[in-house]
Amino acid sequence: MFCEKGFAAASTDELMHAMGLSRQSMYNAFGDKRQLYVEALQQYQTNSISDLAWRLGKDATPLESLYNTLLSFASRVEREGTAGCMGVNAICEFGLSDIELNQLNQHAGQTLRKALEDTLSRCIEAHELPAGIDVAGACDFLLSTLSGMKVSAKGGMSTAQLSAIAEFAIRALKTLD
Fold it and tell me: Which of 8, 22, 59, 152 is deepest in the core (most CB within 10 A)?
């Protein structure tokens, strides 16, 4: 529910129904809606980063892994049945106004950035990307591309369009020097 709707738009009744819990059980287990959200965001980020790290190391070459990771975001709606991303929703909904959520998002962002920087470095070592590439800048580009793909997916962009963005991003990286 939080992935699809965000914090404010997900009603307590919808959350109880989705979890199969009564109101009292939900409050006993999580305290309140906000604490449930914080715990759900932590779990979502842990699972997402673990999946991403696995995808970035599973293919024959680092660039192939990077490309397939981008494609996995493009096909996420078909695979998981949701176009929402709880991390992007949290940033869009709360911005920098919530210190606890900021800390969670910063930690997840740093972990994701490290995984992408490591993959980009492996691409350079394997001569799949130019040796002079600005790894930090390329990483910023990929992080922005991923966020844009997630927002575009939530806005209804097709898997084919999202896949084209992934292909374009990889082509763009190859031309940087």
Answer: 152
Query: How far is 25 from 62, CA to CA, in rounded Å?
Result: 46
* Residue 96: predicted pLDDT: 87
The count of other CB atoms within 10 Å of the CB of residue 62 is 21
Sequence spans of domains, the chain? 2-175
The percentage of the chain sitting over the pLDDT mark of 90, rounded to a whole number, equals 58
pLDDT tens sequence across 70-105: 988 888 777 777 766 888 889 889 988 999 999 999
Q: What is the DSSP string of 49-97?
A: HHHHHHHHTSSSSHHHHHHHHHHHHHTHHHHHS----HHHHHHHHHTTS
**Whole-model pTM over 0.85:** yes
> What is the sign of the dihedral through the CA atoms of 159, 142, 101 and 35?
positive
Question: Residue 95 and residue 91: Cα distance in Å, rounded?
Answer: 5
Which amino acid makes up residue 77? V
Which residues of the chain fall short of a pLDDT of 50?
Answer: none
What kind of architecture, by CATH, is found in domain 2-175? Orthogonal Bundle (1.10)
Amino acid at 162: L
